[in-house]
Amino acid sequence: MPWSRDDYPNSMKNLEDSTRNKAIEIANALLEDDYNESRAIAIAISQAKEWASKRSIIKTDGNDQHVVPHNEKWGILREGNQRVSHIYKTKEKALEKAKELAKNENVKVVVHRKDGTIQENLIP
């Protein structure tokens, strides 16, 4: 069953409009290639989120949690703040905590590289 902007899987309801539209497009293409419906939905959502993060389409509300390099370690910096709130030895530990904070606050996680540039946006 092909989906449209008005009729799509419930699991896509919380996606931004442009991300949802991309997920619908991808899911429909996967269905045409004989993918199982539930698998097509999961793949489509994942790929659409990746597509959106690479294009900075995901909107920010100004409170996102950033995982940033901090004095040879990794810190978590809330967007708009001057100081990091948490410091970890590894990027993985900082990312784990940032995802937890972001999920509780319904914001995204912006992951930076060592040089400070944005690596990816995550919606926990």
Report on the structure:
The chain is α+β, with helices and mostly antiparallel strands. The protein folds into two domains: 10-54, no CATH class; 65-122, no CATH class. It contains three helices and five strands; from the N terminus they run ααβββαββ. The protein has a five-stranded mixed sheet. Helix 1 packs across helix 2. The longest helix has 18 residues, at 37-54. The two termini are 29 Å apart. The model has no long low-confidence stretch (mean pLDDT 88).
Which features does this protein show?
about 120 residues, alpha+beta, 2 domains, five-stranded mixed β-sheet, 5 strands
Can you lay out the helices and strands and say which pair or pack?
Layout: H1 17-32, H2 37-54, E1 65-70, E2 73-78, E3 86-88, H3 91-105, E4 109-112, E5 118-122
Parallel strand pairs: 1-4
Antiparallel strand pairs: 1-2, 2-3, 4-5
Provide a concise account of the structure shown.
The protein has three helices and five strands, in the order ααβββαββ.
What's the mean pLDDT score?
Answer: 88
Please list the strands of the largest sheet in the order they lie side by side: 3-2-1-4-5
Shape type: elongated
Number of domains in the coordinates? 2
Q: Quick one: biggest sheet?
A: 5 strands, mixed
DSSP helical segment count? 3
The low-pLDDT segments are none
Rg, nearest Å: 17 Å
The portion of residues assigned to helices is 25-40%
Structural class designation: alpha+beta
In terms of DSSP E residues, the strand content is 15-25%
Following the backbone from N to C, one meets helices and strands in this order, namely: HHEEEHEE
For the secondary structure, the number of strands is 5
Distance between the termini: 29 Å
